């Protein structure tokens, strides 16, 4: 009975999604998130945060591409295929990030982060420090919330990985993963902001 109803159910759900039916979006997530999350978790070495991130990205991508589903397989099978591609992309990117100084941001970026908590009262440097702090905060704001908390804990609060794990209520392995991805994301965001700042300054002159 389930096999005869499922295709009709999937097609009906697709049509509702294409019409922009808000209740259909909720139904789609409720029905598919558990399976997609389990599928991702089994391929992320138990990293729950990474699995959740991949599940969310997969479902968002599925919503955007739902018009391409042709019904050759069930909607869930199609979504899991998207998840497999997302896993490959994310894990490949993660491996590249781990190859780039996994334990260090470099002295310049560490100094930039520390500028947020720098309380030195040097009037000649105060403006520069404030501008740098704004750029750092803007870069941190672009991070996933848990990645941002891990980076702030490490570089602003000087917490150990164990303390970060306890604060975020995750395993130390998961905390290390969050910190590694957070460092890479912060580095990328900060360098982009600096490049934009230089380009804007050049245009003004």
- The helix/strand class is mainly alpha
How many beta-strand runs?
0
CATH class of the largest domain: Mainly Alpha
At the fourth level of CATH, the homologous superfamily of the largest domain is Winged helix-like DNA-binding domain superfamily/Winged helix DNA-binding domain
CA distance, first residue to last residue: 72 Å
Helix content: over 70%
Portion of residues in beta strands equals: under 5%
Q: pLDDT below 50 for ≥5 consecutive residues: which ranges?
A: 1-5, 97-103, 121-127
**CATH architecture classification name of the largest domain:** Orthogonal Bundle
Order of helices and strands: HHHHHHHHH
List keywords for this structure.
single chain; 205 residues; Arc Repressor Mutant, subunit A; 2 domains; disordered N terminus; Rna Polymerase Sigma Factor, Chain: A
Can you tell me about this structure?
The chain contains 9 helices and no strands. With 205 residues, it is mostly helical. The protein folds into 2 domains: 97 residues, Rna Polymerase Sigma Factor, Chain: A (Orthogonal Bundle), CATH 1.10.1740; 98 residues, Winged helix-like DNA-binding domain superfamily/Winged helix DNA-binding domain (Arc Repressor Mutant, subunit A). Helix 3 crosses helix 4, helix 6 crosses helix 9 and helix 8 packs across helix 9. The N terminus is likely disordered.
